[in-house]
Amino acid sequence: MKHLVLAMVVLLLASPTFAQEDALITVLKSDAPTQEKAAACRALASVGTQKAVPVLVSLLADETLAHMGRYALEPIDDLSIDMALRKKLGELKGLLLVGVIDSLGVRKDTEAVGPLAQCLRQTDPEVTQAAARALGNIGGPAAQVLGNALSHMSDAEQAIQLAICEGLLRCAEAMPDDKAVTIYDRVRDVPNLPHHVQVAALRGAILSRGDKGVPLWISTIRGASPGLLADAMGISMDMAGKAMTRIMASELLRINPEVQFMLLQTLGYRGDTVAAPAMVPLAKRGPVRLRIAAIRSLVQLGTPSSIPVLAVLVKDSDATVSKAAQAGLIGFPGKEVDMAVVAMLNEVDARYRMVSIDMVGQRRMVAAVPSLLKATDDASADVVNASFKRLGELAGVAEIPDVVNAMLKTHAVVAAESALAGICARQTDKTLCSDKILPGLEQAKGKAKLALLRVLRTVGDPKALTAVRAAAGESDKLVSETAIRLLCDWPTVDALPDLAKLANTTESNTFRILAIRGQLRLIPKQTGIEAQKLSQVKAILPLIKRTEEQRLVLALLGRLSTAESLQLVLPYLTQEMLKEEACVTVVGIAEKIVTTHPEDVVKAMKQVRTGNKKLGERVKALLALVPEAEVEEGFTSIFNGKDLTGWDGKPGWWTVEDGALTAESTPEKPCKLCNYLIWEGDKPADFELLAEFKLSGKGNSGIQIRSETRSDWDTYGYQADMTGDGELIGFVYHHKYALIAGRGTKAVFAADGKPTVEQIGEPEELLTHYKQGDWNTYRVVCDGPDISLYINGVLMCQITDLRVADADRYGIIALQMHPGPPMKIQFKNIRIKVLK
To answer: Regarding the domain with residue range 645-834, which homologous superfamily does it belong to in the CATH classification?
Structure first.
């Protein structure tokens, strides 16, 4: 039986219904665990027939499985079940009996009405309450039994009384309205019932009467307690129709204020506009709380006839009422409200003109812009200021000339300027804004002209800049100084030439400082190359005297993050007021350029003196990143460690892997022709080159020096040769002469080409300095006719080539990808020092 549940599932999914039922009955008759029998009952609730009834009935006396047995029996369509359940009424007690009673109610067994009536007389309250509920579910003839039982209940039997009332309400719900009324009224007469039962009986009594229930509803709201009053209002929401709305509205003036308040809210929720006329008197006079409720309900109904009423109430002497009317109009839909709001701009009292302007803004009434423009000439300064404020929010580019004209006439220049700036700020076409403003600028004088100049700075397009630049040269000192300040605060990089000129020519220290600050603000905004920005900064530096601007320079140089910006920051490390900020800037720049300019970074880090522990740790980390060989005096990195910038190679072969220039051939991708990765930087003659390299065992490569380019990324010239197995490490190769100097030799080629070779070391012993399969450093020195090769600091070979016709003394530097078996070639930390 251990896996019986799984077997049942399989049967239910795959077997015919009769086979499923037989299998489930077998489970119930067996000694299977309770859990498996419960599962069988659940399944029988879906597939059980008369065949399963006996075994399920036998479970009704089982305390552990009775519930599941009844669960299975209740949906089976067989009269024998009802008979069996009725029989069990006389055999069971306690919760088992309660369960059987509940099942009879679920099955609506009318034959059980008599036996269940007997259960109402039992002393066990759980049994009697279950019987009352079951009779309520059965309905029909059970209603009389419950009614008789209710008549004989004493006050001491309140719990049973409640169950009987609930049973009666269930009966009434299933009855025709004309018969249900009697039951609802009978329950309503029972004293001391819980509130929810009272409300259910009242609701049924009113709704089952239809139109004749209205008087009962009216009498209820006139005399109900506050708790029941709210429920009565809820009941009215189920009494649809305009006729009911009219009746409710007619009660508004006949009932006490508390009921009026709730009735107003309910009428608002109903949404029938026929109630609006009855609300108007309450909105106009009476207690403030009721007036506000009436206003809100009028807004909910949304009838246009309410608009004049609300417009009048805006001027009410009670501020609370006035604000409620304002809020109502603001949220009221329709153009009629817009017209009423605009009409208020003609009110004699400036307070209401202000209210109108406020509502215009809150309703976003673009159509009111002409009226607002007219109001900028109002006698009230408050109205003028408010009108300009709303114009700034609502007017568009087409209204800019009108706003400018209004500015030229008004004393409220500040408000007009704010409005104009707000309009322009919302526009995407800044040039169009300038076109609309500039004609007014030509006419403007005094404060208005200064304001227009400030707006043009906000616009910030080339035409605006031209106008402000011209104003900076005017004879009116106030205009020129305002324009100069605006240029110094200009939002776009177009003003940089003006600021550079101003900083160098002005006699005003204040304007020089402002011009310098403006440049330092705008320089980083340019899209040009870093060199251009650095050039601009360098031009400013001699003019800067104050610590405040020097701090701005440090911030700017920190953003540029180049080797040159690093050098410009270094002098500040010795300035007492700036040295800590300079240290932070230097370290920040160094962290960004350490792979491309390691020698500059090391030099800079050695100058950093800081008491900041964390900053000191960053300095140490930077120094640890740079091998000592890379900081030799005068060397410059020619590979940035990140990408192929500055190098040109055959597509598909050279990449950057783990900070190293890498080429690799595989069986699937063999290298059939020699190709080179060519440095694009220069064609040096006399120089010293350092490069770390690593080759796979069968790798073959070289560093091309003093060479020329050929087609398809090929080269021709001298090469510092190398192979992964070390065989050609420390050899000089030339495309014309092949191997011209071996490891451990010095070869001298006379002018006529005759070679002289001498031994300078033991080839095998020299090879021990090469670390096969690991990183090694190649040092190549080209000085006049001499070429010397070093591996890991040890001299491998030398040549002196005096063949002037054949020995080129300058040329490209390139890295070789050699054809042959699969191999991998890598180079990193490549740096050069020019000797002459």
So the answer is: Exo-inulinase; domain 1 (2.60.120.560)
